[in-house]
Amino acid sequence: MNRFLLCHRWVCWATGLLMVLPAVAASATPTGISAVTHASSSLPLSAAFLPAYHRWFDGLAWAAHIDTETVSNLAGGIAPGTVAILVGHAGFSYHTARAGLWAGGKFTMNVLGIESGDPEDKVGDVQGVSNLYAHSQFRLYRLTFRQHLGPATLRLGLMSANDYFDVTGQAAQLINSSFGITPTLSGNIPGMATYPYSGLGVMTAIHVDVWEAKAGWYQGDPLQPFSDPFGQGDMALAEIDYRNTAQEQTCVLKLGAWHYQQRAVYSAVLGPRTSGLYAVAEYAELLPRGRRLGLFLQAGSTPQSVNLIPYYLGAGFRIKGLLPGRGADVFSMGMTRAWLRNSPYPAETAYEITYAAQVVPHILLQPDLQWVIHPGGRHPNALVAGLSLHVQLF
What we know:
Blueprint: H1 2-19, H2 23-26, H3 35-41, E1 54-57, E2 60-75, E3 81-95, E4 105-116, H4 120-123, E5 137-149, E6 152-159, H5 183-186, E7 199-208, E8 211-219, E9 233-246, E10 249-262, H6 267-270, E11 274-286, E12 292-301, E13 311-320, E14 330-339, E15 347-360, E16 363-373, E17 382-392
Antiparallel strand pairs: 1-2, 2-3, 2-17, 3-4, 4-5, 5-6, 6-7, 7-8, 8-9, 9-10, 10-11, 11-12, 12-13, 13-14, 14-15, 15-16, 16-17
């Protein structure tokens, strides 16, 4: 427990230091397309994603960031209290074309280190009030090869399925885990290849005009990625995407299906055979004075009786550059609702409001507030406050 308190004190100290930095530094804008702007505009400020890779020499590039977070259950749930989370994520890539070899190839290797308390011990929710939380560990997170072949892309190796499937870009800054992956997937499948337990798999995608179709096949037990990887079960996903950009507006529609199965001898530990559907709708528009509005709607269904969470619905919006002179900041609000089976209450619902502020280039500070109704379908309503610090290393 002392190490969690130490991490908590470090977060508070770093936050206090950042808050007294000069205001002119807070409004500084890096030249070009910075990794911070890229993270604020498209990728979640979470451990699973790295900022844009930076070229080192020849075909080699690297990226790294450190994320810290305190999550405090202020009232309700199981018990009041605070936990701290510290995550480091680093990666290297090797582009074959830049190295003077063949075109379209890339090798990637990422490592992930986590030191964390468990917010669910305080809140008791099933959706996850923090997308940063995972059991403390140090592991190889990604080891992949990618090859572009005309309109098609092939990837294989150790990777997370959620990097490519069931992704909602306009929900990127919301911290509740359900906005990152629908809980009809994550809440029903303990053996899914996703953060922090990426798994061995292969996927392909074909992009034609405004359409993209992709399919993937992943091992069913990513906790043991190299021990009989597909002998214990597997998971298949397929998704079709529509993306249309006209003038200053962008519309995105996604429809996906998945099937998960285990050999009978492992089903009691790794989960049952089940399948489901998910859908995502997104809309983005450029507003006056450089602001950007984003809207999203998510849904998931897996009604089989073996599933704890048969249905899911999420919605929200974000505004980038809401305040004058703060073009990289993102304000976001969202609602997420997971229906529960065999519970005193029919559903767990969470409302979230958050603001991701670029304090200086490559450093973002994000306060967050969530109101969770019926956590776990059995606990009192919970008020949860979070404070995240995202530091990109260059």
